[in-house]
Amino acid sequence: MSDKKPLNIGLVGYGFMGRTHSNGYKRVNDFFGDLEYRPVLKAVCGRTQDKAQAFADQWGYESVETDWKKLVARADIDAIDICTPNDQHAEVAIAAAKAGKMVLCEKPLARTAAESEPMVAAVEEAKVPNTVWYNYRRVPAVTLAKQIVDSGKLGKIFHYRANFLQDWTISADLPQGGAGLWRLDAAAAGSGVTGDLLAHCIDTAIWLNGSIKDVSAMTETFIKERVHTATGEKQAVTIDDACLFHCHFANGSLGLFESTRYARGHKALYTFEINGEHASIRWDLHDLNRLEYFDHSDDSIVRGWRTVHITDGDQPYMGHWWVPGLCIGYEHTFVHQVADFLKSLSTGEPCRPTFRDALETARVCDAVLASAAERAWKNV
Ligand code: SOE
To answer: Pocket around ligand 1: residues whose beta carbon is below 6 Å from it?
Structure first.
């Protein structure tokens, strides 16, 4: 029997993200042995009873709810984890905070900054621990990039560049709406690649390089109409299929960002590069265990880009996994986020990004979309 304090989780939504989070809760104490808390998979909530039950059976949830309000009202739930489409984040999070529950919310925080603001107010008024699952911060190579930037090794930063490229919506036959495909429906998602993919890039960028001051953007919707799953009728597509923007950071550096779901051949190519006065770093999600580093102070005859394989025990998070040389993957970023969340409950320090941190990302996304719509520079 474990002597750890139980933390009873109520999961809302059982899609792709429901699985990544559940895996995090299940694995965390096996690999992070020093935590005071132990997540308990208390209940999963989904509208369709048999699907929710099948998820509960597969992942080991003790019970099932079909109404999130009942889940939030349950006295035996400590934390609500929101894995629904974006249009439901605000209502569930605000009710959960008011009920005194901790709230973990899948990214983006909500569809817009205006919708995100009352969520921030609710968790702050209730003083409940909160976090948003911008999971790529917790790829060990990305966390190491943060340590390198913070150490000052790059010197003054001139450029920040990021891409998030996919190709899964190129077919005009793909409907909008429904499981997974709600990402194509602006009513459910809020926006297209801006809120879904660029939000990741913006979260990482703000974390690594500080606030974004202003933006100039362009968006495109390549496929103008798609059948809506709910009606069976063709309807206008109002999400952005692609978005490019450039910006000024508060530290004086320039940013360049691109995201699309129409880059044939790319499935989830998230890359960033930072160029500083003394050194540069770059990272690529398709090769996530490596960080590339160029240091101008190296001896000139051997100076060049080096590739650091992030698998050593003294590199971020890796002391909890295997032995040097052996890799981890995408799912581990969620285990790390659970570990950091549980640790934050012991230390009282916030688990970043908090709802307030994610609001800053939402404001940048709003400015990007407004800039594209008005063909004008926008302050964040
Ligand atoms: C979209 O395809 C998606 O699943 C995003 O919703 C995730 O946030 C991203 O990590 C991978 O791509």
So the answer is: 166, 196, 268
Q: How far apart are CA 364 and CA 380, in angstroms?
A: 6
Q: What pLDDT is attached to residue 122? A: 98
Pick the residue whose CA is nearest to atom 5 on ligand 1: 196
Atom number in ligand 1 closest to CA 200:
8
- Which of 48-57, 119-128, 176-185 has the weakest average pLDDT? 176-185
Ligand 1 centroid from CA 3, angstroms: 36
3-state secondary structure of 110: coil
**Model pLDDT, residue 68:** 98
- pLDDT at residue 116, as a whole number: 98
Q: Which residues of 254-289 are buried (b: 16+ CB within 10 A; e: fewer)?
A: ebebbbbbbbeebeeebbbbbbbeebbbbbbbeebb
Contact 25, 338 (CB under 8 A): yes
The residue whose C-alpha atom lies closest to atom 6 belonging to ligand 1 is 196
Output the average pLDDT for the chain. 97
Which domains, ranges and CATH numbers included, belong to the chain?
5-135 (3.40.50.720), 136-379 (3.30.360.10)
Q: 130-133 and 102-106: which strand pairing?
A: parallel
Measured distance CA(197)–CA(262) in Å, rounded: 13
Residue from 196, 201, 260, 285 whose mutation best tests the ligand 1 pocket (most atoms within 8 A of CB): 196
For the stretch 369-378, pLDDT in tens is 999 999 999 9
Tens-place pLDDT, residues 96-111: 999 999 999 999 999 9
Tell whether the model's pLDDT for residue 1 goes beyond 70: no
b or e along 98-124 (b: 16 or more beta carbons within 10 Å of the residue's beta carbon)?
ebebbbbbbbbbbbbbebbbbbbebbe
Q: Which residue from 197, 262, 337 has its CB within 8 A of the most atoms of ligand 1, so it is best to mutate?
A: 197
| CB neighbours of residue 4 within 10 Å | 15
As a whole number of Å, the end-to-end CA separation of the chain is 51
